[in-house]
Amino acid sequence: MNDISGSSLVVLYVDPNPEVRTQRVAALTRQGVTVLEADDAEAGVIVAQTLKRLDVLVSEGYLREGGYTGFDLRDAVRQKFPELRTIFTSRYEMAGYEQYFDGCPLMLEPVNESELISEIVGVCEVVQAPSAVPSVPSAPVAVAVAVAATADDSSVQKAILVDEDEENKPHSLPPNTALGNYTITEDLYAERDSETYLAIQRGVNRKVVLVLLRPDQTDQPGALDAFHERERVKASIAHPRIAPLYEALAVDGRHFYTRELPNGRSIEELQESGTKFKEKQLVEIIANVAEAMGHATGRGHHYRMLSPRDVFVDDEGQASIVNVFRPPGSKPRDFQADTKKLLIMLRGLADGPRARHQIDDLVRESHTWEGLTNRAKELQEEFHERSLLKRADTKEAHDIKAAHERTSVPIWVLGLSAVVVVGLVTGIVLRNRNTPPPPPKPLQSEMVAIPAGEFVYQKDAQKRVNNAFWIDKYEVTIGQYAEFLDALAKDPAKAKQYDHPDQPAAKKDHLPDKWTDYLGAARTAGYFNNQPVNINCPITNVDWWDAWAYAKWRGHRLPTEEEWERAGRGRDGRLHPWGNDAKPKAANLGSDYDPKGKGGATDGYNFWAPEDKMPEDVSEDGVIGLAGNVEEWTATQANHPDYPDLPVPVVRGGNFALNRPENELTLRIFADSPENATIARGFRTVSDTPPPAAATAAGAAP
User: Fold this and answer.
1) Which fold is adopted by the domain 10-161?
2) Is the CB of residue 641 less than 8 Å from the CB of residue 670?
């Protein structure tokens, strides 16, 4: 055998490089091979789940950083196809990892198509014996982002690929069979003890799902009682996202029940049509399904595992499920394994890397049904907050543009001019009552000492050690940033010396958008975009390059995210700067935020607050405003989770629109880019040496 022309082989080809994958799939297809393809291990599992036959897996060994390897994929797929032949390719030197190949051949890149075809011929001549599932290799690094690939989790792998109840037995009822008021129209699937059909309820012309006890089960001891008990369980569950049972009947010796056919299309149908969902839509689907499953399991109901035919999504993006609940089985369900199976099933519908990585993160977190519901709701709240901020940014730009089109008067004057007009009409008392307060005294730069030592980092209580440093007591204010811009304007020749070496050539200055209006409003304690503002409010709408340049001008630098968290959480890893007890009024956060400009009922501020007006938002070392007001740029660069090859700045802290105060000090926000300036983002600086005595706030000496 020297070629595979005309063969009936089924090959799954997995490679993250789309060009290489397309080329090789085409070459194999020309040989008459049936080729399925995937770009990573998780997608490969989903493809394998749909197959009834698979002869050869060809996979890159190291699929992506932080993800599952080709070894993990092989071990998972072997659960369904024990005779699977596997060929590994690799762009990396794999010396020292021979044990993980388990006898499978390795082809080091570059590999041409003829060599690959010859290798496939070779493995098809010798059938490999199935082997035990090895442990996950220590390298290449494989972080659990899909189904865990250790022996302890082999049950999860098997659950991905094999429906524990489905059998390939023929149905006993042909189309057009009448059962009482129902007419069979189509057979759907069969389980060990039942057959499921699509039917029409003739009296009301309604499509229903009809589930029939298999005729060969009717005389089996206890089978009929068990079937009726299943009917009772299904009838007892009432939830808007679980298809209800209509009625249970016996006609001509046949026992069956009917249930609702959920609205929309099943995951199976969506996958076949190539439908994809963005991150927000997927989280909505996950929340819907997890809530339904949590409702029933929380009441003690057992279930068979959801399959792609059991989850439906309607035209509004709302999900519902088939009533898969039944009397308790001999073995309790593993909720964490089952939520992983659901998530991996949905990953095939993910549109783009952001949505896929969101699914991967949820799999890695390993939730129960209740936990998955709560986490999905948290994510929905995050999406809502992002949307509010975008609306606020858009509204700000629109209002400013409209104001400029109506008048040549600077935007910051508009709030004052309205007061003057009212005063002229209604009298001096009312005019005085509406006159803004005089501008405050500018806050001076102060720094707080953070001593060296060990501290608790992130939610998983990592132990880190920091060197001594000094950090700004307050976020950089509008007034302080204006001093920086004034200094640059006075000596343009020196301005470039403060720019970051990688600053884009197209960026010519460090002026925030609408700076003239913004500064004018702040200096007069007026209004900007209908929000009160003064020079002691934090500077916003600055990008990372602006923040870096300001820090260098001060002789400082931006804090690392570890330094930022140490300053906020202290040594002991407290939840909030002030301690572990929630204080809704202590920080300027988003529980009272209204993008239309009418919020602030809880903490007193809808948008930004003057830096010295939230004194309770203070850390044990005396740093102000880390929990709320505006989030802050840090010096730390990390790979964006949605674009692993793109390093971006990490942003830390809560902001006036963030409505999740429980994790404002541990939340890591990945900016879209260093140019990603927003109205809810500012910064502060740090120094490795003590500032002048006059600029040092109270705090322990390092």
Assistant:
1) Rossmann fold (3.40.50)
2) yes
Cis amide linkage into residue 110, ω under 30° from 0: yes
The least confident of 168-172, 398-402, 569-573 is 398-402
Residue ranges of domains in the chain: 10-161, 178-260, 265-381, 442-695
> In the sheet that 265-266 helps form, which strands lie side by side, from edge to edge?
265-266, 311-313, 319-321
CATH 3.30.200.20 fits 178-260, yes or no: yes
Contact (CB, 8 A) for 130 and 78: yes
Assign domain 265-381 to its CATH architecture: Orthogonal Bundle (1.10)
The pLDDT of 538-562, averaged and rounded, is 96
Letter for the amino acid at 115?
Answer: E
pLDDT digits (tens, 9 = 90+) for 652-693: 998 888 776 567 788 888 888 899 898 889 999 999 999 887
Q: What is the pLDDT of residue 381?
A: 75
Residue 495: in which H helix or E strand, if any?
Answer: helix 492-495
- Confidence class of residue 459 from pLDDT cuts 50, 70 and 90? confident
**DSSP per residue, 127-165:** PPPP-PPPPPPSSS----SSS--SGGGHHHHHHHH--SS
Give the model's pLDDT for residue 161. 40
- Is residue 286's pLDDT more than 70? yes
**CATH classification of 442-695, choosing from 1.10.3210.10, 3.90.1580.10, 3.30.430.20, 2.60.40.2250?**
3.90.1580.10
What is the C-alpha to C-alpha distance for residues 614 and 607, in angstroms, rounded to an integer? 13
Instruction: Kindly report the pTM of this predicted structure.
Output: 0.49
Stronger pLDDT, 694 or 228, i.e. the higher one:
228
Tokens of 322: 């088939």
